[in-house]
Amino acid sequence: MNLESPKVTVQKSAQDLFTLLTDVKNFEQLMPENIAKFEVIGEDAFIFGLKGMPEIKLKMKDKIAPNKIVLGAASDKLPFTLVTNIESTSETSSSVKLDFEGDFNPMMAMMIKGPIGKFIETLATNMGKL
Length: 130
Fold this sequence. Notes:
Elements: E1 2-4, E2 8-10, H1 14-21, E3 35-42, E4 45-50, E5 56-64, E6 68-73, E7 80-88, E8 94-102, H2 106-125
Antiparallel strand pairs: 1-8, 2-8, 3-4, 4-5, 5-6, 6-7, 7-8
InterPro entries: START-like_dom_sf
Protein name: SRPBCC family protein
Organism: Flavobacterium frigidarium
């Protein structure tokens, strides 16, 4: 299952945005309002939980400055990656798009497609808050 967020313009340079997003503490500011839990559990990992959904542990899997950050599920129960693609549009702005890729059975994919789609859209939209 592949989902994409809309491309969002952020008033930060690609390098500044990359630096902010490689610090997992900053993801708390991107979370939707219905967050039930957010906890940093290492310099490259955090756990978050949304109301009505199981808690998910995300770990930094790869970083390619200043254009790409790959977060992945730390559990094999829900195998997925969340890729942040950053494009420089000027010295003071950049565009960002999130790509979610998960390997789920069709029933699970049907159940989570809506909530995950909304979630990554919220993350992208909130990038301007950083």
